[in-house]
């Protein structure tokens, strides 16, 4: 029985549909999957900052585990905290304004606490104490930036290290995202920041 025009069209449409289904199944039209870094950065409060800072590092881009990404994040946050602490310490030393000098001294102390917390972070990570990593290390570290900035706000003084504080907060936020995903129980929810 010869195909009529309608039957030929239906046959061709079914054939095309079948080919598309087979090609999709074979992965020929598959799009590139997001990397671990892209997935984690998409959950951060500032995804662009995350992708910029971590994406410029080939090791971070190629990270294949959350633990590896967390280690890199701890290292990057520590480096930033050291630089911010040094900046605050220098400003404290050279400040001639008593209020600013007192606040900078306070910020130096806060960043000392942050660095102590970040120093403990790899231990928590290594022992798979992810909630401890989140609460003690990362949240305590992040509190330094918040407390430092809040002192300037409370004193009605402009903070010369606002940008550094915000960036440090963003580093800690990325670590919170990773720690949250490392936590297996699923009961651990990221808390949003207040500033």
Radius of gyration: 25 Å
Approximate helicity band:
over 70%
Low-confidence spans: pLDDT under 50, at least 5 residues? 11-15, 17-32, 185-195
Number of DSSP-assigned strands? 0
Order of helices and strands: HHHHHHHH
The overall number of domains is 2
CATH superfamily of the largest domain, please?
Invertase/pectin methylesterase inhibitor family protein
Category from helices, strands and their pairing: mainly alpha
What is the residue-averaged pLDDT? 81
Total helical elements: 8
Biggest sheet architecture:
none
CATH T-level topology of the largest domain: Butyryl-CoA Dehydrogenase, subunit A, domain 3
CATH architecture descriptor name of the largest domain: Up-down Bundle
Text of the CATH class of the largest domain: Mainly Alpha
Summarize the model shown.
This protein has 195 residues and is mainly α. It has helices spanning 5-26, 36-41, 47-55, 58-61, 66-94, 98-126, 130-154, 162-182.
List keywords for this structure.
Butyryl-CoA Dehydrogenase, subunit A, domain 3, mainly alpha, single chain, 195 residues, 2 domains
């Amino acid at each position: 029985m010869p195909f009529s025009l309608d039957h030929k069209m239906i046959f061709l449409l079914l054939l095309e549909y079948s080919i598309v289904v087979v090609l999709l199944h074979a992965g020929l039209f598959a799009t590139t999957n997001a990397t671990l870094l892209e997935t984690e950065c998409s959950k951060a409060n500032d995804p662009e900052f995350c992708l910029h800072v971590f994406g410029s590092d080939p090791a971070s881009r190629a990270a294949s585990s959350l633990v590896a990404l967390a280690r890199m994040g701890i290292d990057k946050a520590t480096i930033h905290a050291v630089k911010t602490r040094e900046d605050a310490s220098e400003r404290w030393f050279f400040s001639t304004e008593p209020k600013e000098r007192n606040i900078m001294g306070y910020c130096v102390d806060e960043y000392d606490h942050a660095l102590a917390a970040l120093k403990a972070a790899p231990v928590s990570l290594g022992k798979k104490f992810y909630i401890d990593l989140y609460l003690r290390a990362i949240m305590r570290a992040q509190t330094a930036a918040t407390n430092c900035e809040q002192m300037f706000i409370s004193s009605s003084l402009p903070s010369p290290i606002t940008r550094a504080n915000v960036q440090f907060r963003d580093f800690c936020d990325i670590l919170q995202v990773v720690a949250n995903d490392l936590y297996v129980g699923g009961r651990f929810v990221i808390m949003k920041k207040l500033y």
